[in-house]
Design a protein that fits this description.
The protein is built from seven helices and five strands. By secondary structure, it is an alpha/beta fold.
Length: 163
């Protein structure tokens, strides 16, 4: 997993990464201040996602609508925004797009203290560490859609969703 994470950090040097233990702690202690964005396809999200995560299309380009739809504009609470995908590539792309949009759009009523980051290692690392996942019915699950045959090699066999 580390070589993939290192490649993503190199590819997106301006993107802040957050470790899975920190996100798990935020989920337990300060859930209302955490906005989890799942940057994967609907079938992947349906199999499993982090509890409370909102699915975002990996191809999303309209950051203005996204910021408004997520309620980030004018939000006094300054939530911590954590994006994740299978291994971190699409999530890092979204973090970069959001940060560039927020930095360049003075019309947004957003606080500079908003923290937007990528979950390092993505859902594969999270799953391999046996951290909480839910399915489309909000029921606990341990299964993950590995996205490609390449990424399935990084997932413990017990956690691979059939299909």
């Amino acid at each position: 997993m580390e070589p993939v994470s290192e490649w993503i950090r190199h590819r997106f040097p301006a993107v802040e990464n957050v470790c899975s233990d920190t996100v798990e702690q935020l989920l337990k202690e300060n859930r209302e201040r955490l906005l989890l964005l799942d940057v994967r396809s609907p079938p992947e999200y349906e199999i499993s996602h982090l509890p409370g995560a909102v699915r975002i299309d990996p191809e999303a380009t309209n950051m203005d609508h996204l910021v408004k739809d997520l309620g980030l504009a004018g939000n006094e609470a300054d939530p911590a925004v954590v994006c994740y995908c299978t291994v971190g590539f699409y999530a890092s792309q979204l973090v970069q797009k959001l940060c560039n949009f927020l930095a360049g759009d003075s019309r947004q009523n957003l606080h500079s203290s908003m923290n937007i980051s990528n979950l390092e290692g993505g859902l594969l690392k999270w799953s391999n560490e046996k951290k909480a996942l839910v399915d489309s019915s909000n029921q606990p699950t341990s299964l993950v859609h590995p996205y490609t045959q390449l990424w399935v090699q990084l997932l413990k066999a017990d956690f691979k969703a059939p299909g």
